[in-house]
Amino acid sequence: MRVLMYHGIERVSSARDPYGMFVAPDAFRQQVEHLLEAGYVPIDETTYAAALRGADVPRKAVLITFDDGYVGVGEHAAPILVSLGVPSVLYVPAGLVGGRSDWLAARYRHPLLSAAELREVSAAGMAIGAHGFDHADLTRLGDADLRRQVVETRAELARVVGRPVRSFAFPYGAHDARVRLAVERAGYDHAFAVHDAVPGFANGRVDVNATDTLRSFRIKLHRHYPRARLATDRVPLLRRKAHDLVGRAPRVECDTHESTGGAR
Ligand SMILES: [Zn+2]
């Protein structure tokens, strides 16, 4: 199963998004249309959870996820997904609903969906999952704080959305054995990391970002991509070469920042 990880869906200049977390709405639409044309089968989080426990799933199953809950996901991504009949999961920090991405430097902060907007997108087929309470790095917290970010957050978010919260995405993709166990014990069905997946409660995802062209997106869908990425990650020069080969999407006020920075 492929799992894609997006952040914002909105046209944002690189000056305000140095980590390349915002994909333009037209690029996002092209990517989802490509999935459907290429025979990928978008699945929802219930199907994904069942497949983890051994249920049959189509060979080209793909789960679309978004982290952080930026307003553009409600404004742009949700209508596109509804029009194409594609389900998805949105991971939000429960304590920042209706606020801003306060964990980023002030000039890179962006508004986050409100409780009413979360209920709207949830009703439109976007499951809501937990992304901690305030996007803290869970591996750095004591037990009481960890509990707040994982256990209490789950109940709070379920109250806000009016539906059970079934899965978790680690802020910054950061996890260790203690954090994974806390998430598992809190009753979540599964949890997502980013690149450093661990079998059990830290499943991997493929990061789609502002620099992706349709060509690099197609390469990322290849079933060997996560392994190839890990390999090139250990060899930075090779990784840059790979980037040169597949190209980068043009961005407003383009800079040369690598899009894998620690802002997730
Ligand atoms: Zn995040």
From TrEMBL:
Kindly state which keywords UniProt assigns to this record, in alphabetical order. Signal
Q: Which SUPFAM superfamilies match?
A: Glycoside hydrolase/deacetylase
Gene3D superfamilies in the record: Glycoside hydrolase/deacetylase
Give the signal sequence positions: none
Q: Which CDD domains match?
A: CE4_NodB_like_5s_6s (cd10918)
Report whether Signal shows up as a keyword of the record: yes
Q: Where is the NodB homology domain?
A: 60-264
Where does this protein have coiled-coil stretches?
none
The family database entries (InterPro entries) matched by this protein are listed as: Glyco_hydro/deAcase_b/a-brl, NODB_dom, Polysacch_Deacetylase
Q: Which domain of life is it from?
A: Bacteria
Q: What is its main location?
A: secreted
Its subcellular locations are: Secreted
Please report a single Pfam family linked to this protein.
Answer: Polysacc_deac_1
Q: What is this protein called?
A: Polysaccharide deacetylase family protein
